[in-house]
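fwd from M.: "can u put these together and see what the complex looks like"

so here's what she sent:
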Amino acid sequence: MQNKMKAVIMTAPNQYGVELVDIPKPAPGEVLVKIMSVAICGSDPPLLAGESYQTPTLPFTPGHEFSGIVEALGDGVTDLKVGDRIAGESHCGCGYCYNCKSGSYNLCLNFGKLDKGHRHYGFTTNGCYAQYNSYNIKTLHKIPDNLSYDEAALCDPAGTSFNAVTLTGVTAGGYSLTIGDGPIGILTMQFARSMGSKTIMVGCGNRLAMSKKLGADYTIDFTKTADIPGAVMEITDGLGADEVFECSGAPGTTTQAIQSVRRGGQVALVGMSSITEMMVPVRSVILDQIHIHGVRANPNVTKNVISLFADGKVNAAGVITHRFPLDDIKQAVELFVNNKDEAMKVIIHPWD
Amino acid sequence: MQNKMKAVIMTAPNQYGVELVDIPKPAPGEVLVKIMSVAICGSDPPLLAGESYQTPTLPFTPGHEFSGIVEALGDGVTDLKVGDRIAGESHCGCGYCYNCKSGSYNLCLNFGKLDKGHRHYGFTTNGCYAQYNSYNIKTLHKIPDNLSYDEAALCDPAGTSFNAVTLTGVTAGGYSLTIGDGPIGILTMQFARSMGSKTIMVGCGNRLAMSKKLGADYTIDFTKTADIPGAVMEITDGLGADEVFECSGAPGTTTQAIQSVRRGGQVALVGMSSITEMMVPVRSVILDQIHIHGVRANPNVTKNVISLFADGKVNAAGVITHRFPLDDIKQAVELFVNNKDEAMKVIIHPWD
Amino acid sequence: MQNKMKAVIMTAPNQYGVELVDIPKPAPGEVLVKIMSVAICGSDPPLLAGESYQTPTLPFTPGHEFSGIVEALGDGVTDLKVGDRIAGESHCGCGYCYNCKSGSYNLCLNFGKLDKGHRHYGFTTNGCYAQYNSYNIKTLHKIPDNLSYDEAALCDPAGTSFNAVTLTGVTAGGYSLTIGDGPIGILTMQFARSMGSKTIMVGCGNRLAMSKKLGADYTIDFTKTADIPGAVMEITDGLGADEVFECSGAPGTTTQAIQSVRRGGQVALVGMSSITEMMVPVRSVILDQIHIHGVRANPNVTKNVISLFADGKVNAAGVITHRFPLDDIKQAVELFVNNKDEAMKVIIHPWD
Amino acid sequence: MQNKMKAVIMTAPNQYGVELVDIPKPAPGEVLVKIMSVAICGSDPPLLAGESYQTPTLPFTPGHEFSGIVEALGDGVTDLKVGDRIAGESHCGCGYCYNCKSGSYNLCLNFGKLDKGHRHYGFTTNGCYAQYNSYNIKTLHKIPDNLSYDEAALCDPAGTSFNAVTLTGVTAGGYSLTIGDGPIGILTMQFARSMGSKTIMVGCGNRLAMSKKLGADYTIDFTKTADIPGAVMEITDGLGADEVFECSGAPGTTTQAIQSVRRGGQVALVGMSSITEMMVPVRSVILDQIHIHGVRANPNVTKNVISLFADGKVNAAGVITHRFPLDDIKQAVELFVNNKDEAMKVIIHPWD
């Protein structure tokens, strides 16, 4: 094995490119992963632009949705071996704070503190826009042979979707509404469907068509529908959806979510945007006793996601539209940011 | 028994007074209750002013927080007998819709439809500002001898508090924060305390003093504290409260609630005001994975409330400051609305 | 409409036959239902033999799994109309006890007390082995046109299965184990599957073959497998099933259930037999922190069952093997009891 | 600091005594703890006798209920400092298996595997019957000044009680029943009480008297009561207890627990004995839809326990009856095992 690798290096806001750098060594409890496939997350471009809610120490390598092969073992690692095919998740808790110990390592109380063992790969420490990276084994999961690297790279974002359906629960035989037909929205809709829900998707254009193809039982084109909650009420016999997943982050959709859910129903806020505050119809929340759950990332779900992907119950490949070599990172990001060429999930192949 | 009774009759917004009217007869499944004590709810004055979110058909008798004595039985009633001392709750579901059958009769899908059996006493049908009223037995609960009628009249509002602590859960050995030191706030704080929580109360003046006397472990005077969430963080070792109860309905307090809760914590929205929409820091809700629960009324809790009152674990009498005969209803309402004379819970005695 | 109907009348243990009797009139809140399809439940033959845990007052008409058409309305009924196609459930709570009000009408505290409004149709009051019967509207649910009467007759037993999966929860992407391949077992397996579980079924012979056809991902033939838990561990990578549904009621299977579930997993006891007590490995329950749920009937689930049936996510028709006219009731019961001719669910048609 | 310490060394079943041995060095992520107080657990004597369900590698130092002072820090420890007063818990998960990551480190899938980081102090690795021991910081919690070392030594067993009340939930204003008035039973009763429950205790003699003194609202002397469930029904208006905690491990009490709980209620199995199997009335479990939870140890609860101890809501000191120096370990164990001199919780002081 050579000791240099290609990696995207960000040196300042909007300044980044592929460089040759040292391959990181796995610390105790870590393994070195040969990155086979990377997906661009909606949070990556703001980070590259210096507009993220989290600012890494520069120079920096972003990226946190990936799959790969175990290349070398750090001290004390016995559960993975060289050659294992794996998918990763971005959050690595300190392991000893109250939240980590009780299962919410996505809410680690030592978030961002590298000296206490916390890692948010691709945010607070280097990520996967590279040919190699070292990861704590807590964040890695073996994948079955029938799951491609490209599909496996979606385990991290799909885990956010799975966390959403876990926090709300899903009513088998009921209706769920997903607002926002980006990759997270379409994956969330599919997970709800895999748990027995009749699915309603709000979106438009080619993405709404993709939603339909990937399992949305009902679609609502928001460019043609003045009254989204009214349309939901019509589908649901006037009762509203049992669960609503807000996956767009757009202003106004949180209100639509609350107006579209049934009395006593569950709303998940998944989509995050540049907006930090929104008007929310709190009186309706009270009078209809609605439950709202913020959804952050993907704790304890990767195993389930891998299983549903591998069994074909959720179609990950279906949201992938483009693939680029690492050297074309800027072109890939530009296409992704501008939704060019009907881009949905854009994949980077570090070894192409 | 005579066949006329005194009752408050509202004939138009802001037009009401005590009149002699027929005593209502109990229908099958109902009993006639001799009303012994009535508490004025914060939602009564807006209703009398024609500014409620619910508009009753006039003429109308308001009131829904009460206790009394069973005076006569409707057909088919075998579980109550004449002379039983009872406390009431205001919501009576249709009994056969999905929400009623599954325990959420406060969210009855036939809300407001009298022909389908739903009653919201004091809102959609006559209430307890009277010497008698008939009630479906679903809404009545026997009270022990050591519970006074005045205390028992608080079972309905206290039930909203109990629903709040039920929806959030209460962390025994943890911290809860209550924002708003009106009767509902102080009762909510007491229930949280009875379930093992260390309680923090935000308020001011005599009400905050009352909170302290009734069990608040920590008090924050909002007139003297610029940074409420900061003060909460100081008390809670920088972690935030496990549960936050927003009981004021004031603009801005929902944001305070969200900023004061721990990562992954629970927020209950209890206080309702004339405000229908509020700015909410949704990004924080997502990043800290916060759970928000609208709280409507008091399903399935009156039994528990009675028990905690009777055992002295929650002090209902402590929030009662004034008592008036029914004839002085206007004076009582005026004192209550304007918080005159340090008024908290104001009681009406129909038989004084 | 004529005023006489055919009905099965039981006059003593093991003494029953079809007779002409008066058509019952619907009381207020009830409707008269023309029974179109009846399924024989495993609890019907013991009841006819006088060996049930519940003893009805004789003469008596059993049966509680049915579908039909609304024929006439009792007073006050506005939500159903003559001609509506409906499916029924057997439990009708009093509607005002603590359990009913909080959603557990299957556990009504006034169970068996007719004067308090409780009905357990086909157990404590006449059932559906007849051409007509009157039912409280709380127990009836409209069915869509694409659901046949025979399928709809299975809503009641399928509701027990749905209650089981509700009480345990189902891990999407995980494994569930169902022990017992009778109709309830196969329906339970299908519901778990519809909620994203990989399903393992323990059974034998034609029933196990039927399980496979209806969606069991793995089958274990207990006649050929000495170590059932060992076989489950092999399938589940040594971890055990996330949820185990004991649907056989056989001695020993509860121990198998506990030995086959993962550490911290969920076990539902669904199958009831003549056995009232069993040896249970309590030390394992403690050391592996296992959760065991008794499952009684089908509260608040019929709507969901109808939806999953109608959408083809759960195949009800697949477990139906035989159909008889009402006049052949004895032949039908005998075939059912003795599992003759590979009988699974046996249907009675009162109007054939 | 010297480099030798006193420790109890077990060399064979029933062969143990105090010896001078090397003080263990803290590994990375560990600290060395000066043990100030140790409580004898009911599981210690069987372990010393070689009759435990877990067999340690000999020679071995038992003990897992302790408090102490941080004496030295291993590499990478920043959250504790020398001189900190701490309480410990016995389970230390591997930190990366599915159960650990999702909060159930008491059910670690790598249980007993030292090479994977799991520790069950005092069971699979040396414990606290010594003047010093090294512990992973995951298992240690700072204690406030007003909590004595003796009280703090009870955090570990009390955590099992707290886990029990967490798994069942506690109905504020309802009734809980605790069967078994040993230290775990009395602590469980107190926790239920701190969460608003009216408490019923089954026991006898001085322990039942102690229960009463420490907060049991009702006591049932099993030596004088033929029908325990009947006595519970009398106290609870014929409904049964909302939660039942089986803390005795005696044959027959599991059946009493199930017969004493309300329809739809919760039963926790806490008490473990030499019995591995018991007869359980499964039919009642099904017909009354009862939920049974095995309770193992104390995940994620020590913080809450410390808080309730320190605030005086649960009286830990009240169950302590005897104190011995480490040199008298045999005398202490003998007194404890034989319940001599009304012994309840027996404390060892390694430095006396």
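replying to her w this: The longest strand of chain B covers residues 30-39.
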